[in-house]
Amino acid sequence: MGWNKGGWGAQAEDPGVSKYNSGMLTNQRLHNLWLFCQKHWRSGELSNLNDCLDLVWVELFADSTKEQRETIANFDKSILELTKKSKELIKRKSAIDVANNKAMMALTIKDKFLFLKTVEKKQGRGLAYKDEFEDDFD
Questions:
Q1: Banded pLDDT at 48 (limits 50, 70, 90)
Q2: Residue 92: what pLDDT?
Q3: What is the DSSP string of 88-132?
Q4: What is the rounded distance in angstroms from the CA atom of residue 107 to the CA atom of residue 103?
Q5: Domains along the chain with CATH numbers
Q6: How far is it, in rounded angstroms, from Cα 10 to Cα 130?
Q7: What is the pLDDT of residue 94?
């Protein structure tokens, strides 16, 4: 399989079909990432949680819509602004404002988390699998 000059991806005349189901592997990576995200959430590690959510987004990006990409960009912009504000507030030693800013950061990251779970479901990942050939006997 060859690669395009100056770009990523297989050449059209050599599609490089894999005998492995990459969908299953993607779902396994997503499962593992969500476990790490939950670990960081429970321990209050907001920066690590956001980094982990970014890795989830990498897995979901290829099948995302323009609106979903814009929403994630807005989340990332808000998180960056809150991070900058937090650094300024720490310098000013304003404990109440730092705590309020951290709460806003936590809510924004939680919303990003929930949004990514919604994107995952809309893409058909994380849903229950039903084999068409299974009988209905329990």
A1: very high
A2: 84
A3: HHHHHT-HHHHHHHHHHHHHHHHHHHHHHHHHHHHTTTTSPP--T
A4: 6
A5: 22-122 (1.20.120)
A6: 33
A7: 83
Q: Which long-range contacts (CB under 8 A, 24 or more apart) does 36-44 make?
A: 37/113, 41/110, 41/113
Q: What angle do CA 66, 126, 138 make, to 5 degrees?
A: 145
List CB contacts of 48: < 8 A, sequence separation 6 or more.
40
Length of the chain: 138
CB-based contacts of 32: which residues, under 8 Å, 6+ apart? none
Residues 112 and 53: beta-carbon distance below 8 Å: yes
**pLDDT tier at 43 (50, 70, 90 boundaries)?**
very high
The larger pLDDT score, comparing residue 39 to residue 130, is at: 39
* Residues facing 10 on adjacent strands: 3
